[in-house]
Every structure is written in C-alpha cells, then in structure tokens.
C-alpha cells in the first residue's frame, strides 16, 4: 500500500511540474475592476506566472472549503463535547454510588462486583 501511495505522489508531482512548465507565461492580475480602481485611486496589478495563479487558486479554494466545513460542523462538535462531558459525569456518579453501595461489604466481593 505504501508503494501505491508513493507511485501516486510521483505521478501527481510529474503532472504538476508539467503543468507548471507549460504555463510559465506571465499574466497580469488586477486586484480591483478598472473603473473602481480609478475611482479609489488604487491601480494595483500583479505580474505572475500562470501556473502560480492556477496553483494558488487551488490552494485558496481548498483553504476556504476546509474553513467553511469546519464552521458548518461546529454544532456537531459542540454536541459531541456536551455528550462526552455528560458521560464522564455519569461515570463518576456511578462509581460514587457503587462505592456507597459496597461500603459495608467485604473488599473482595466489592472488587468482584466492580469487575463484573
């Protein structure tokens, strides 16, 4: 299984390098539309190779997606934490009640009751 993973990563690396080599031409990125940038007095542009724009867009999309999913799952994580805290509280209470129940018993019998 490890070799399959290494083979997949090698193929992916070859594909990414070939895409990068095929798209080395510089492109101009404008941060704002032309009319809005003139209105605000900010005519900011960037000259970047196309493969950086492509790979950067993929990374930005993944990060936005991960963050969005993390925010969406907040309710489930909070509910799981509440249930885990309730389970721990109930286990502590059960140990306390069993301890009170076994207070007058023989120690060996109390240990057997706890194990079973």
UniProtKB/TrEMBL annotation:
It comes from the Bacteria. GO terms for cellular component: plasma membrane. The keyword Heme does not apply. InterPro entries: LapA_dom. Keywords: Cell membrane, Coiled coil, Membrane, Transmembrane, Transmembrane helix. Pfam families: LapA_dom. The chain crosses the membrane at residues 46-68. Residues 33-94 form the Lipopolysaccharide assembly protein A domain. Residues 71-107 form a coiled coil. The keyword Aminoacyl-tRNA synthetase does not apply. This is Lipopolysaccharide assembly protein A domain-containing protein.
